[in-house]
Recover the amino acids of this structure.
């Protein structure tokens, strides 16, 4: 089938950038991204593309090029479903906060809603693509809903998980390591796979497009995230041992990374991984393993989360202990709140948990992040429900200027590895702070020798 119309349900961190790149690379295909969230759609349609709701390097230029030509953002979900030949489902699949599987399983209510809506609207055959990260065998449930509640039209369900990382979404989408497409082994299934392969072939070479059965594709996404997060928990576990033994985690990472079997990427010790994916997907994997009675498999993967929680806690404890066992009424400045650099996303950011611990010890937190607003920061803290929002507002404030944020602080904590932090006038910052002036570098970002020479008491993860 020659594809000329695509729709994507969910205009979030995946749906927005992914569809923008498809539209840019396939001018012959009309791409409509729909969402129930009107505010988000309005922001995608903002005349100034610098105001689009997701910050990703390079994204606003692509949106400026394609929007209004063959890229559209709309709240009219029904019309977009009706017109499209391929429907991507790219809605959120957060960890369940209620009922069976609470705190572990993926909440599939948004996925099911999409399936029911597609079934209701579709009047001709459609290819439905799982872009969201889903538990293995979810396609079975989607198919059952589509086949039993629909208008008798034929649906093919493909799994096409997204591997982009935030902060590098555009380059990841333009030059993916691979595109993974899982589909049914029937003739119709294979035809559907070919239709989607043809879309990606507009800019991705065929040897990078991998096709599998649906279950392998679904499970590969969870596996990839589990392996990636495992590397971070592994290096973070070693960082604690480094701190006790005089070894340096950066040197250890360099040394092991030169082994081509290990590889050098994804070995940066940190205050702990954040983001909307790793924890959610591993918990989901643990839940799936348990539901099949595979308790050893579940325990093995759960340890990654346990280690990550320990790393965040360890960082806040270290700040408290070093500041003479009390941070009450002390100003502690956070440089960075986003879960990594080059994104405005704060979901599961380590900063949230470290701030929460320090506020419980009555510290006063000052935050500077180049892309995150105070409103978002306070919402993140309120979400934890540790204290009232008034108490959070009284304990934390944010600044638009990093030098103001650091003035009179007892300590600075680096929570995000924004490049600009390296270029600050650290002497000026030192002069404006309480003495002794401490820096707790949760990202191993700054030049330790330079900071120590200025007079800072400098402590980085893993050294
Ligand atoms: P998001 O929360 O940023 O976006 C999801 C959007 O879907 C929201 O705007 C929401 O309003 C909308 N939505 C929910 N239900 C809807 C419905 N029934 N109709 C219309 N719109 C609806 O989430 P995200 O970060 O883009 O993640 C989406 C999926 O992609 C998740 O399964 C996630 O695990 C996966 N994923 C995310 C990343 C990432 O880096 N964020 C990377 C790979 C995969
Ligand atoms: C991740 C996966 O990388 C991506 O393939 C998937 O599609 C979505 O989940 P993302 O969470 O956006 O992407 O960013 P990633 O670069 O993986 O970083 C996740 C967290 O790990 C961040 O908090 C980051 O700072 C941290 N991290 C990453 C480390 O602490 N050390 C590292 O070496 C790498």
């Amino acid at each position: 089938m020659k594809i000329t119309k695509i729709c994507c349900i969910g205009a979030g961190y995946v749906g927005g950038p992914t569809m923008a790149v498809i539209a840019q690379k396939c001018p012959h295909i009309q791409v409509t991204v729909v969402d129930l969230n009107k505010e988000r759609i309005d922001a995608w349609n903002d005349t100034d593309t610098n105001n689009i709701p997701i910050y990703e390097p390079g994204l606003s230029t692509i949106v400026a090029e394609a929007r209004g030509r063959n890229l559209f953002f709309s709240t009219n979900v029904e019309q977009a479903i009706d017109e499209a030949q391929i429907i991507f489902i790219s809605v959120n699949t957060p960890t369940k906060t209620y009922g069976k599987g609470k705190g572990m399983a993926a909440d599939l209510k948004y996925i099911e809603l999409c399936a029911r809506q597609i079934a209701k609207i579709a009047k001709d055959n459609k290819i439905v693509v799982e872009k969201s990260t889903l538990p293995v065998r979810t396609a079975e449930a989607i198919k059952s809903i589509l086949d039993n509640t629909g208008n008798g039209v034929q649906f093919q369900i493909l799994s096409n998980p997204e591997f982009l990382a935030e902060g590098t979404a555009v380059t990841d989408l333009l030059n993916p390591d691979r595109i993974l497409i899982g589909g049914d082994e029937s003739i119709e299934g294979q035809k559907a796979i070919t239709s989607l392969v043809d879309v990606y072939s507009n800019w991705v070479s065929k040897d990078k497009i991998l096709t599998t059965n649906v279950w392998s594709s679904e499970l590969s996404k969870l596996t990839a995230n589990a392996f990636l997060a495992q590397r971070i928990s592994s290096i973070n576990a070693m960082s604690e041992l480094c701190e006790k033994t005089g070894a340096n985690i950066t040197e250890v990472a360099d040394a092991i990374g030169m082994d081509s079997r290990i590889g050098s990427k994804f070995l940066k010790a940190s205050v702990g991984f954040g983001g909307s994916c790793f924890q959610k997907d591993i918990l989901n994997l643990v839940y799936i393993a348990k539901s099949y009675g595979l308790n050893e498999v579940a325990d093995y993967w759960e340890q990654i989360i346990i280690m990550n929680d320990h790393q965040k806690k360890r960082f806040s404890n270290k700040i408290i202990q070093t500041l003479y066992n009390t941070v009450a009424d002390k100003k502690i400045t956070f440089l960075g709140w986003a879960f990594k650099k080059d994104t405005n996303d704060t979901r599961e950011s380590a900063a949230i948990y470290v701030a929460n611990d320090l506020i419980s010890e009555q510290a006063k937190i000052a935050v500077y992040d180049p892309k995150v607003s105070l409103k978002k920061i306070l919402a993140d803290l309120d979400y934890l429900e540790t204290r009232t929002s008034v108490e959070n507002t009284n304990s934390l404030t944010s600044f638009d200027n990093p030098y103001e944020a650091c003035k009179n602080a007892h300590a600075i904590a680096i929570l995000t590895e924004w490049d600009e932090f390296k270029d600050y006038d650290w002497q000026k910052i030192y002069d404006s702070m309480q003495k002794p002036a401490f820096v707790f570098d949760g990202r191993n970002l700054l030049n330790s020798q330079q900071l120590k020479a200025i007079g800072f008491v400098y402590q980085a993860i893993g050294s």
